[in-house]
TrEMBL record:
Organism whose genome encodes this protein: Methylopila jiangsuensis
Matches recorded under Gene3D superfamilies: Heme oxygenase-like (1.20.910.10)
Origin superkingdom: Bacteria
Protein's recorded name: Pyrroloquinoline-quinone synthase
Catalysis performed (reactions): 6-(2-amino-2-carboxyethyl)-7,8-dioxo-1,2,3,4,7,8-hexahydroquinoline-2,4-dicarboxylate + 3 O2 = pyrroloquinoline quinone + 2 H2O2 + 2 H2O + H(+)
NCBIfam families referenced in this protein's UniProt entry, alphabetically: PQQ_syn_pqqC (TIGR02111)
Thiaminase-2/PQQC domain residues: 13-223
Length: 251
């Protein structure tokens, strides 16, 4: 083994360190959301903008799936698409996210159109899809490794939102029920994949950089929400209070 090549445990440690320092659970808006400090407009804006990311997940997984030459790898990876799209209409993670936005009083057609999402959200999602399409396959797979960090974050977020927002119910947050188990399964596979296929130190460094990119993409989405809804005002064509239930709730 080359002297500078990271062992499997060293590579995993480096990847986990990325999450410890860069995962969006550390973002001030995320902390605000789960600690009950967000206004209803901010919660609605978060859910509406996050939908674009949720909707892109099976698309990015299809890009990765199409590039996998090994049938066993494809069989493992395609479950991610089923998890989000479901086997039938009305099933899967995307449908459950729309249940969340429905319960918040958002118009479903407006949410799915993406027309009220912040420009930075649209740019971030597009950049992610381009990344998994254009970068080497091992890097594309590595970008999914934010799932290493999501199970514990999901628990904190769900408990915090249920405790602090009386308009949020367990049914509203049904999307998150299966995600810890799914994320553990998927991150175990992706970690084993990148460990096997990153054969040089340069490839290992690229894998780490891919995870840093994904963390920056998620962080950017929260930066935009924080700026637009707390410190300034949102883009003129983006979501405003009058587009959601917050105005009616205030009245």
């Amino acid at each position: 083994m080359p002297a500078d090549l990271l062992s499997a445990s060293e590579l995993e440690a480096r990847l986990r360190d990325v999450g410890a320092r860069r995962y969006h659970s550390l973002h001030p808006f995320q902390i605000r959301l789960q600690s009950g400090q967000c206004s209803r407009t901010e919660v609605e804006a978060w859910a509406l903008n996050r939908y674009l990311y949720q909707a892109c997940i099976p698309q990015k997984d299809a890009h990765i799936l199409a590039r996998m030459e090994n049938a066993d790898d494809r069989r493992a990876w395609r479950q991610r698409i089923v998890d989000h799209d479901g086997e039938h209409e009305g099933e899967g993670g995307i449908a459950k996210w729309l249940k969340l936005t429905d319960d918040l009083g958002l118009d479903r057609a407006t949410v799915t159109s993406g027309r009220l999402a912040l420009p930075a959200t649209k740019f971030a999602v597009t950049s992610y899809l381009c990344f998994v399409r254009d970068r080497p396959l091992t890097e594309a797979v590595a970008s999914s490794l934010t799932e290493l960090f999501s199970p514990s974050v999901i628990k904190v977020r769900s408990e915090g939102m249920l405790a602090n927002y009386d308009y949020v119910t367990p049914e509203t947050l049904a999307y998150f029920n299966k995600r810890p188990v799914q994320a553990k399964r998927d991150s175990d596979f992706a970690l084993a994949y990148v460990t096997e296929h990153a054969k040089t130190r340069a490839e290992q460094d690229a894998v780490i950089a891919a995870l840093e990119f994904k963390c920056s993409m998620l962080w950017t989405m929260l930066d935009a929400l924080e700026h637009g809804y707390i410190y300034a005002k949102p883009w003129p064509d983006a979501f405003h209070a009058e587009d959601g239930a917050a105005k009616q709730a205030a009245e």
